[in-house]
Amino acid sequence: MKKFLIAGNWKMNKTTAEAIEFGNEIKAKGFSNAKDVAILAPFTQLTELGKALEGSGIGFGAQNVHFEPSGAFTGEISVPMLQEIGVGYCIVGHSERREYFGETDQTVNAKLKALLQAGITPILCVGESLEVREGKGEQTFVAGQLIADFEGISAADAAKIVIAYEPIWAIGTGKTATPDQAEEMCAFIRGVMGGTYDNGTADSMLILYGGSMKPSNAAELLAKPDINGGLIGGASLKVDDFAAIVDAAAALA
Ligand code: 13P
Q: Which long-range contacts (CB under 8 A, 24 or more apart) does 74-83 make?
């Protein structure tokens, strides 16, 4: 049976009061597949969101973390700080952080290692720009990210990392990769993992698609064999839209 993870990335949206309201409403949905659902919220909302979701089975997590446990890094949040709140997940290497905040494959790699050591599931984002795709370099580009991001990580640890394929040209643009394009890259990513580690490890890994996933296109994307779920931005901000995507995954499980 295929495993799923439906993860909502709220990005820099919602106040804590709004996060609590969302948490209460989504909990009330009583999803049969609640354990396959997670919400990635801004740091300030995590404690209260976690409380609102308590007992629901739905996971929650952060959108970024620093790789050092403590120190003179003004404005940063560490893995032990996230651990204290009880987060289960943390996004690493989102294209917005790579583009606007200087995230590199080296810092991504350090963050993955710090999270794995703490038992927090990393959701690693990879994906190419429009320019790279137009030059037909998308597979080379994504393989390069993967090789650098997984450097020095064992097969046992790699199996715990969730990979999200997020083509930059499909993020927040309303332009979704076609199910075939998304499947092609997710299968390619699984192949790279198989080559780096082994097929058993690759087959056990969750590989998500992200980029304008919404209720109207989710079922078709999620039905693809190598797509284990979605990392959802805009459509994760409304309870009913997000719930419809969770239900689409439940129908396929
Ligand atoms: P959208 O769903 O808004 O395109 O965002 C995708 C994304 O970046 C999720 O991390």
A: 77/43, 79/114, 79/115, 79/117, 79/118, 79/120, 80/118, 82/46, 82/118, 82/120, 83/118, 83/119, 83/120
